[in-house]
Amino acid sequence: MFIDRQSELDQFNRLYHSGRAELLVLYGRRRVGKTELLRVFCQDKAHIYFIATLSSDSDQLAAFSQQIWRYAHPDGSQGPVYVSWEAAFAALAALPGRPVVVLDEFTYLISGNKAIPSILQKVWDQQLKDAALMLVLCGSYIGMMETEVLAYRAPLYGRRTASALLPALDFPSSTLFFPEYPPEERFLAWAILGGMPYYLRTFDPGLDILTNVRRSILDPQSGTLYNEPRLLLMEELHEPRNYFSILRAIAQGRTRLNEIAQGSGVGPPGTVARYLDILQQMRLVTRRVPATEHQPEKSKKGLYQIDDHFLRFWFRYVHPNQAAIDLGLADAILEQRIRPDLEHFAAAAFEEAAQGYVAALARTGELPFLPERIGAWWDRTAEIDLLAVSDAQGALLAGECKWSAHPVGTNVLEELRRKMEALNRSGAWTEVHYCLFSRTGFTPALIRQAADEHVLLAGVEQMLGPG
Fold first, then answer.
1. Closest to 330 measured CA to CA, from 234, 222, 249
2. Residue 271: inside a domain
3. E-assigned strands of 141-269?
4. For 376-390, how does the pLDDT look when each residue is reduced to its tens digit (9 = 90+)?
5. Is residue 120 part of a domain?
């Protein structure tokens, strides 16, 4: 199943039809769907799709040579092996038509031959930049792609004509995997799995959420996702044990640097900060600051959270209980640890979905102002789930998100107003708007008041897509 990605396909097709040589760099986390996206893009075009492996450099060159030969000689005959990568890359310039040449898992090529970027840069400058081809470099090791391909000192710096960091699917797109689920169940699936297509495909849309959790996540023998985070981190990181400890500490609610250092036992805050930097580079962890902060990188109010929903779920419920699960107690873990806590777990994702909904409204021009930042706000005494801020226009949208079994009433709106009065004592924002998000709807009194005062109200069904 291929879901969404229309904006990326549109971008790639514009490059393909540009009439000039194109060098696209596509990168992103494993399981995010890069390969499937490129396969869909290539399916109606003449192309070479080469997937690098961890085999020897000579084996990789031999395999790539055969793919070049088969493109030009589709009779299935065996071709020669190029004497060098330089010769193989140079041969791309002579291919007939306008081929798309994809080098997938490009970081594996670099791991086997550190000179690959320099060789490709030389051939690009001398021949390929004037050729009728579209070259795509695709990789999953985000840090290596950024340092070896995109960074200022990298040999290929300045050669790419486009680059794209492929994000996880958003909430509305993720729920398309479960068209038969009611809105709340679709949200819970996203809260647990996030927007990684590989994870979403593991759930059977014919089964309820907790049955899918039991089968896909809590089964040590046949659960596709039971060991997924462990394999992911062990493949991409040195000292995975320390990263595991840090991620578990965050999943348990320790979000400040000092708390994470104390809870993980990895070392002093300075040491933990270096590990957190790497996790942020991998897009596994995010450092959040209040949306009112003008210089987020200098803010002392930063809180860390696990960015990937499934890793958040796994480190909260699976990793601490793996010994019990391996002893055959998965059903007990599901009933005693996960089911009672799932609503609390989902509440944080509900705030993220609301922020995504407001961002979508901003993109379609449906907000009364253009926000510069969208996030949350907190201090020592209070917090606001959602703030969309425009310093230039002196405008602000404040919102509360309630993932509860009861309809939201006027008291929630009045409490939000009181928080905003405290936040805006200086009068920095002359234009203040309000929004409320609810799992189970709104009381009639609030609906009437919201209509009179132009307060935005949205439930889960509305959040599946603006408009």
1. 222
2. yes
3. 162-165
4. 999 888 899 999 999
5. yes
